[in-house]
Amino acid sequence: MRAFNRLMIVMLSTLSLAACGQGKGNAVTDEEMTMGKADAKVTVVEYASASCGHCATFHAEVFPAFKTKYVDTGRVKYVFREFITPPAELAAAGFLTARCGGKDKYFSVLDGVFRSQEEIFRTGDMRSPLVRVAKSAGMTEEQFMACVSDEKALKALATRVEKFAKQDNITGTPTFLINGEKLDGEQTIAAFDTAIAAAEAAAK
Fold this sequence. Notes:
CATH superfamily: Glutaredoxin
CATH architecture: 3-Layer(aba) Sandwich
Mean pLDDT: 89
């Protein structure tokens, strides 16, 4: 995974620029990973890192209820935006693996990466758990290695992170934008209830 050394240099430059932009709200591109009704009145954008422990906790403990209450009912369009936090190798490999799994499997692969964090941090072995996650999405180990060594995909990831972090002034994860209004850090369902109700009222 030598390509990660080059990626980390790019990522460090990206993160140093992250605080320079102004928030732009809810502009969503075709390359992004989304769930929910396309024309929902409320768009919730989450910035998260595949190596962020707080993000993993949110996705294990809060996101399922959030998805059931808001995404599955058509009240919210959910957009996931990738961000890189240390260790950058894990964040990058996790996102590349999720994208290589295909758009229809992106979120299930990412969930597998989040669930593997504890083992990776405890053992220091990133490759074995990620290979298992990749295989669960139908990839071979060879396909996984090709995926995380794809320099074009690495550069595309760096470009996405830089673009959106600057656009929305993102400096850490998790960060949420609810119709452009920012919530920093892990959130509870109660916090989403309040913020989404306000966004729905404003959108009427």
